[in-house]
Amino acid sequence: MSTTFQLDTSTSRANPTPVPMKRLTVPRIRARKVDGITAEPLVMLTAYTARQAQLLDAHCDLLLVGDSLGQVIYGLPSTIPVTLEMMANHGAAVVRGSYHSVVVVDMPFGSYESSKELAFDSAAYLLKQTGAAAVKLEGGEAMAETVEFLNSRGIPVMGHVGLTPQAVNVLGGYMARGRSDAEADKIVSDAVALDKAGAFAIVIEGVVEPIAIDATQAVSCPTIGIGASARCDGQVLVTEDMLGMFERVPRFVKRYDDIASMIDKTAAAYAHEVRTRAFPGEDQTYQPKD
């Protein structure tokens, strides 16, 4: 694949070699929303590997190293078993594979909830190990003090309200949130609390559309929808869902391709050629020199 980059000629002692393009920053992402309006919606996709990051980077404003890697990469039943070490390893790979996007790493379950001090230790570990620009954590008003604590100590935080997968055992499943008045009010108040605490952006997941719009209008920072509304300030999907790697996906996912079928077809062709000894051929083997 050929990609044309605009060369960033600035260098530093840490990065003496010019990189293809200048990386976006958290303040620039935050500044995309002006007086409640984001003229050009933010684009975010998940990434878990260096090669995936290379392919997505030029098209995105943010790359999320999501704890969804537990299910997508490791075949786990939920995000709950994901560890800090798993997030750090994949986060570092995504940073190495990208030049342009702001890389955000999910804080896994159990790494931040018990105290703001634990959250700082976990977030600092992730940023040191990966080189990412920010972390993301789930929860609303209950996490506002933690968000403020991290932000005031140099760690940018993306919030996450609505359907929060790490709380699946409490929520009782992955159904849409905000259908009752009480739940709708809580989603909006959660978003407002995170905004006031200094979150630079907030993911709104699995929320009935009018509530997602209300939350977006209630906060000064950008919101990023997933199963929410096109009127959020940006959108995110799990890349493998968007590419059609899985047969079953949430109803809010649009499958832009059917990569799973392409892989199946290609693997079948390879297997056939191996079994018929058509591969490797002369072009794929080393012949004696004359």
Structural description of this entry:
By secondary structure, the chain is an alpha/beta fold. The longest helix has 17 residues, at 181-197. The chain has helices spanning 26-30, 50-56, 69-72, 84-96, 116-130, 141-152, 168-171, 181-197, 209-218, 239-243, 259-275, and strands at residues 33-34, 37-38, 42-46, 62-65, 102-106, 134-136, 157-162, 201-205, 223-226, 234-237. β5, α5 (116-130) and β6 form a beta-alpha-beta unit. The strands form two sheets. It has an eight-stranded parallel β-barrel, surrounded by five helices. The chain has a two-stranded antiparallel sheet with strand order 1-2. The mean pLDDT is 93. The chain is globular. Helix content is 38%, strand content 14%. α4 (84-96) packs parallel to α5 (116-130), α5 (116-130) packs across α6 and α8 packs parallel to α9.
List keywords for this structure.
290 residues; alpha/beta; eight-stranded parallel beta barrel
Provide a short characterization of the protein structure.
This protein has 290 residues and is an alpha/beta fold. It has 11 helices and 10 strands.
List the helices and strands and how they pair.
Layout (H helix, E strand, L loop, with lengths): L25 H5 L2 E2 L2 E2 L3 E5 L3 H7 L5 E4 L3 H4 L11 H13 L5 E5 L9 H15 L3 E3 L4 H12 L4 E6 L5 H4 L9 H17 L3 E5 L3 H10 L4 E4 L7 E4 L1 H5 L15 H17 L15
Parallel strand pairs: 3-4, 3-10, 4-5, 5-6, 6-7, 7-8, 8-9, 9-10
Antiparallel strand pairs: 1-2
Helix pairs in contact: 2-4, 4-5, 5-6, 6-8, 8-9
